[in-house]
Amino acid sequence: MVDAGHGGRDPGAVFNGRQEKDDTLRLALAVGEILQDNGIDVSYTRTTDVYETPYEKAMKANNAGVDFFLSIHRNSFPTDNEVSGVESLVYDLSGLKYQVAQDINAQLEAVGFVNLGVKARPNLVVLKRTNMPAVLVEAGFINSDTDNMLFDNNFDAIAEAIATGLLDALNAEGVIQENYYRVQVGLFRNWRYAERLRNELLEQDYPAFIDDSGPFISVQVGGYDNLSDAVAMERRLKMDGYDTLIIS
Ligand SMILES: [Zn+2]
């Protein structure tokens, strides 16, 4: 279950008219979509601007019997523009939740955030009252211009980082079945075009190959048995101007 922090009459932290509840909803939906694309059965505490108490959010997860609870928030500090970075909160520093929190932070650090680490917060209701492993991610400070610029300019990469951190940890811990990832660079009907792209990629030292097992001829790079390696390769391909898609 993906939880967008706050909502409705609870805006969360506010900075220059920017409301935490809006950032969290947008990011939660984006993260959920990526998880869904990777075969995870995703549900949400909210998909619109409605208020629920933290207790109601926790009960929603318990009643649905979900395996993991991921809560998305933005941080704030008493003084504006003094602190920036990401941190993740867990009930205590042990088990799967701690692994997931560390992985998410590391992925977000790669996007450009300062990594402020994982903290134990045993009194937070969504961490304390959920029956399953739960992580609360503070995706940068809403009263930091640096973090807001990162958030707005790298929104897709941030959503991907959070989803990747979660998927990697779940894969590593054997919670979900190990996947095999490849990066698709082109789909063709015509072999000649497929070969041209494959050869162009090979010349640039990409481990490219052709997969003609589907209805189209697919030019791919890979494979990788963890998503973060596939994501790193996808970033490289995108920087070289290719239109890519991670497949598993
Ligand atoms: Zn919050």
TrEMBL record:
Gene3D superfamilies, sorted: Sporulation related repeat, Zn-dependent exopeptidases
Group of enzyme by EC: hydrolase
Origin: domain of life: Bacteria
GO cellular component terms given for this protein: outer membrane-bounded periplasmic space
Enzyme Commission no: 3.5.1.28
GO biological process terms on file: peptidoglycan catabolic process
InterPro entries: MurNAc-LAA_cat (IPR002508), N-acetylmuramoyl_amidase_3 (IPR050695), SPOR-like_dom (IPR007730), SPOR-like_sf (IPR036680)
Keywords: Hydrolase
GO molecular function per UniProt: N-acetylmuramoyl-L-alanine amidase activity; peptidoglycan binding
Pfam families from the UniProt entry: Amidase_3, SPOR
SUPFAM superfamilies: Sporulation related repeat, Zn-dependent exopeptidases
Sequence ranges assigned to domain SPOR in this UniProt record: 175-248
Protein name: N-acetylmuramoyl-L-alanine amidase
